[in-house]
Design a protein that fits this description.
Blueprint lengths: L6 H12 L9 H5 L2 H20 L6 H4 L7 H13 L3 E6 L2 E9 L1 H7 L1 H14 L3 H5 L3 H18 L7 H8 L3 H16 L9 H8 L3 H13 L11 H25 L4
Antiparallel strand pairs: 1-2
Amino acid sequence: MRSEPKFTEAVAHYCETMIEPSPSAWPLRKLLNQFDRYYAAYMLIWNYYGWVEEGAPSPTLARLKTVSGLSPRQLTSFVTVLRQAELVAAEPEAGNRRRSILRPQAELIREISRSCVAFLTAHDHVHAGTLAGIASASTDRLGRMIWGSARQVLSSGTVIAPYPTVLAMAGYDGGYPVLTAIMADHYRRIKGHGGVALGYAALAERFQVSRSHVGNVIGWLHKNGAIDEDRAARPVLVDEFEQWSMSEMQHYARLVTSLFPSG
């Protein structure tokens, strides 16, 4: 796929989508732009849609604890924050009102699937497809897509695991968004356009994180040879990011084609 003439342009568009400022003053992306919390929310969606789609056990907090990746205390605290933000509803289960099911709300599903849909859009750009529109036709479809993706992760492992820099960035608060900003800057530069503001203050404001969080991310990338002194992406980073992007495009394209064969 990387040899396709529109591939680089598609990845550049993906990066531009991912660095768009949050439409909400509430720091939703700050909450979810760290791998452990993102993964827990992703599995919360899997938990609910597994129950809806295939009659899996009830999507309770207890069941989520078995797959979330967080400690029981961390998960309980995280779910409490999601409930307070009205991103998750805890509803009495029919037939056992002493037990609550966790229902992800539309805003959470849309935010968790934001990168997935952006990768589908990139895939469509390369192949003149319509998969992003098919997947995002409803919040329910997005939820089912996350459920299908999580099933594969549980059986075969994460897509991100073979990409050490991307994985490391995902582990930092705001790390992945900063990475996409650096890559967006790279693609703007090769097009001869004005770059992305990569100063600590600019990145911190854009991604609703602290300057120290940005500093930790930039420091890791410098130390590991991924960026130059001016924070430009080095070829090794470009190669890894494009390989990662291709893997994500293919992963979600296969899922959507399988889940929604009639479009």
